[in-house]
Amino acid sequence: MELENVSQMRRDQLFEKLKVHGQEHLVRFWNELSETQRSALADQIERIDFPRIAHLFADRDKASEVVELVDRAGEPAAMRLGDQKNRFSPESAIGRGADALTGGRVAVLLVAGGQGTRLGFEHPKGMFPIGPVSKCSIFQIHVEKVVAAARRYGAPVPLYIMVSPATDLETRKFFAENENFGLPETDFRIFCQGTMPAIDDQTGKILLADRGQIALSPDGHGGALAALQAGGALAEMAERGIEQVFYFQVDNPLVDVCSPEFLGYHLLAGSELTSQVVAKQDPKDRVGNVVEVDGRLRVIEYSDLPDSVAERRRADGSLQIWAGSIAVHVFDLAFLLRMSGRADALPFHVAHKRVPFIDEQGRTHQPEKANAYKFERFIFDLLPAAKNALVVEVDPKTHFAPLKNAPGAASDTPESVRAQMVALHADWLRRAGAELAGGAPVEISPLFALDAEQLRGRIAPGTRISQPVYFRP
Ligand code: UTP
To answer: Could you identify the atom of ligand 1 that is nearest to the CA of residue 250?
Structure first.
């Protein structure tokens, strides 16, 4: 049979399949596409769960089920990093976490599939040159922490990086060019998350980004669960004896990756999922709120939290809904394996967004207001299913510097992140006995020291610093 006939048959099959769901417009430009474009489009169509999309559109205005729970939201069971009043002492937690690391039972999962639209950087966010002195990338800083942890505990710490089609190729190339920043191939995996189509907010029709291209976006950091399973990463972790997975996001260079104390509380409490939180400064802080409802922890997004509840205070005036999630978690691998077997372990959240598209005539539109729904899963929605889930409070000054916005914005900018990095490293240096003069920026590579204590042995007391310095081995 001639190629053109085969292609026509393929188009007809797709058309029939799409028609059942009212989405046959997706092959409207079929005849104008090259063979390669046709097969790419067919591939995209095959991956779409059309009944699910129809459901999500039908339920778009349904209030999130969380709204009904909000009134019963109470304080989560919490420990605080370094606090002797915790149920377990910091020393015992550090010992237990260090044991897990020494035994090679901890893997790291870094999610880096987001599109980073607010930052406006034209490469994956992990490539952003955040180092205040070194100008090194966020990826380099994260990976050096993993390499340093593996050295410190004398056991491999495998790193799994989740990318999306938006960040996949460039991320792989960047790591290949930089020889994985020192991580051996056997301890380094990049895997790609799934996507979801954007749909027109009036009609529920899936949008075309181009004639042969559906408007797809990454399916949220919660997509990690399905992608880890589909790509075989969970099975691989189990095979190599991993028991805990330390999870964090690419956009926070202050994460204390593999913190033994944090891991230790998780293990001592027999928790399946432990999350780092910071005390909210303001009832309306735009963070997910970790609360306890009916004996289970869960995250309520700020958008779902009515002011009346957000503003509730305890007798001492402090906020009752106080715990803001900073998206650093430890998961038990057994918990992830159990949840990955459940197709609907994580719900989809709907976001109303501006999404460029082409219309029936093939004209491109750049909407000025929200025109489409996008769908994402959030990893923290696993919390209610976790046994003995726990939160650990950390100090935002030393643990949380999110890079979200472009330079010059009001908060969470490259400037604010660098300032926090410099402040933290300057503090470590002072504690190691250095004298800092003139406010010159300082930066410490994780390969030089992972914390103030490690730095103490590496700096001669009385060292005077009056120029920008980058400490590295
Ligand atoms: P955000 O939701 O803040 O998105 O992601 P973003 O991509 O950083 O930025 P905007 O909203 O487009 O400006 C939080 C973290 O989750 C990851 C991101 O890479 C970031 O580390 N993420 C987000 C994924 O890995 N996949 C997704 O589908 C979404």
So the answer is: 21
Ligand 1: residue whose CA is nearest its atom 6: 116
Q: Do 358 and 209 contact (CB within 8 A), yes or no?
A: yes
Kindly report the CATH number that applies to the domain delimited by 71-401: 3.90.550.10
The per-residue DSSP string of 121-161 comes to -SS-GGGSB--TTT--BHHHHHHHHHHHHHHHHTS---EEE
* 96-99 contacts, C-beta under 8 A, 24 or more apart: 96/260, 96/263, 96/264, 96/267, 96/268, 97/258, 97/259, 97/260, 97/261, 97/262, 97/263, 97/264, 97/266, 97/267, 98/153, 98/260, 98/264
Q: Which residue's alpha carbon is nearest to atom 15 within ligand 1? A: 249
Sorted by where each begins, the domain ranges of the chain are: 8-58, 71-401, 405-473
Q: Pocket around ligand 1: residues whose beta carbon is below 6 Å from it? A: 111-118, 125, 162, 164, 193, 218-221, 223, 249-251, 376, 404
Report which of 286, 306, 301 is spatially closest to residue 71, judged by C-alpha positions. 306
Kindly report the pTM of this predicted structure: 0.96
CA of 55 to the centre of ligand 1 (A): 25
pLDDT per residue as tens digits for the range 400-452? 999 999 999 999 999 999 999 999 999 999 999 999 998 899 999 999 999 99
Indicate the residue type of 432.
Answer: A
Q: What is the pLDDT of residues 289-347, one digit of tens each?
A: 999 999 999 999 888 888 988 999 999 999 999 999 999 999 999 999 999 988 789 99
Nearest atom in ligand 1 to the alpha carbon of residue 218 is: 28
Mutate to test the pocket of ligand 1, among 117, 247, 249 (most ligand atoms within 8 A of CB): 249
The atom of ligand 1 lying closest to the CA of 376 is 28
Is pLDDT above 60 for 104?
yes
